[in-house]
Write a structure and sequence with these properties.
The chain is built from one helix and 30 strands. The chain is mainly beta and about 375 residues long. Pfam families: PD40 (PF07676).
Length: about 375
């Protein structure tokens, strides 16, 4: 695995040059125009500055295990190759195997004690203290109902919420799984997230977006000595949504709304309130929205090839200052934050559009902020 690093110390002059270039690229008219909106709060301080880019070649990063370790593989995901813990600080022998080779999704618990690992057919927990695997029953009697392409969400350290072929399933850490929501025919989630109720650590709100571009919320309660269960029915929050992400404290939704053909608008919406939210930016496609664990940063990918402005952006959610960290728009790869919120990982297969399976190329980039 090759690793290269490069320092990017942004001076005020350089930052102004980037801003001028972006605003110049937004000029013009037409449906593909990017419009940069005034942020909720404007301030000279609070800039997000990129300190370093770490590139791992021939590696695909699934998740962060700690601020200095990622879980990765050296083969394309469809090959179900072994998983490794890769250290970003240990030069000698930086990798150790996990004894697992069945991953399409990997999601560590908030404290990093347990991994949820799944592929198209199977799912299991992996305890990090002894690497013991705890299989989950994801069968309906005729075969697997797991939706292995959708990354689920932890309900703190208590349980895990994930997607099945016909609904949402909750599993406790002993491997017991049960459905908490059955979907209507033809409905399927494409993204699942969750946030704990700040007033009651036993209650959570799950959020999901389906193939019909609708965003819903669902209340889930985990009571002592009882299996997690849903409270009430799903609530429809947004229609015509291309993507979303809920803030860690559960107070805000960042939603990419479809406002026309090849036209998206990124909005911040307060949960529990109706009406139009605060518009952050408009463009052709906005995807892979992701909050940092402390809620101080919001990452998203913007594609707008004809008018410029395409790339990966990170916004300071307190000041509204937005930084362009990569010119690559990355519309399909998850943006995954380190636990401390100071590093953002993006992994992809065939980054140079080499689509031949014999020459599949993997690449992971980690953007480290000051």
């Amino acid at each position: 695995m090759k690793k290269t690093t490069g320092r990017m110390l942004l001076t005020c002059a350089a930052a102004m040059a980037v801003a001028s270039a972006l605003l110049g690229g937004c000029a013009g008219s037409g449906g593909d125009q990017v419009t940069v909106k005034p942020p909720p709060i404007r301030a000279e301080s609070g800039k997000i500055e990129l300190e370093q880019i770490i590139r791992l070649e021939d590696a695909y990063g699934f998740a962060w295990l700690s601020d200095s370790e990622i879980i990765s593989t050296k083969k394309p995901k469809w090959m179900e190759a072994p998983l490794y813990v890769h250290s970003l600080v240990r030069e000698k022998d930086p990798e150790k195997t996990l004894g697992v080779q069945e991953a399409l999704t990997v999601n560590p618990s908030p404290e990093g004690k347990v991994l949820f690992v799944s592929n198209q057919m199977k799912a299991s927990f992996l305890r990090m203290e002894d690497l013991k695997k705890i299989p989950l029953d994801v069968s309906n009697g005729n075969g697997s109902i797991l939706n292995g392409n959708v990354r689920g969400a932890w309900l703190e350290e208590k349980a895990y919420l994930f997607a099945s072929a016909d609904g949402l399933v909750v599993a406790d850490l002993d491997g017991n799984a049960a459905s908490v929501l059955k979907f209507k025919d033809g409905q399927a989630p494409v993204k699942v997230e969750a946030a704990v109720d700040p007033k009651d650590p036993k209650r959570f709100t799950a959020y999901f977006i389906d193939e019909e571009r609708k965003v819903y919320s669902l209340k889930i309660v985990i009571e002592d000595s009882r299996f997690p269960k849903a409270e009430g029915s799903p609530e429809l929050l947004e229609t015509n949504a291309a993507d979303f992400s809920v803030s860690p404290d559960g107070t805000r939704l960042a939603v990419a709304k479809e406002t026309g053909e090849n036209a998206n608008r990124l909005e911040l919406v307060k949960t529990g309130e109706t009406g139009t939210g605060t518009t952050l930016i408009e463009g052709r496609l906005i995807r892979q929205i992701s909050w940092s664990p402390d809620g101080s940063k919001l990452a998203y990918s913007l594609f707008n090839l004809e008018r410029g402005g395409s790339g990966l952006y990170v916004m300071n959610t307190k000041t509204g200052h937005t930084t362009l960290v990569s010119l690559y728009p990355n519309l399909q790869s998850l943006l995954i934050w380190s636990p401390d919120g100071n590093q953002l990982m993006m992994s992809q297969e065939n980054p140079e559009m080499n689509l031949t399976t014999e020459r599949t190329k993997l690449m992971t980039e980690i953007y480290r902020f000051k």
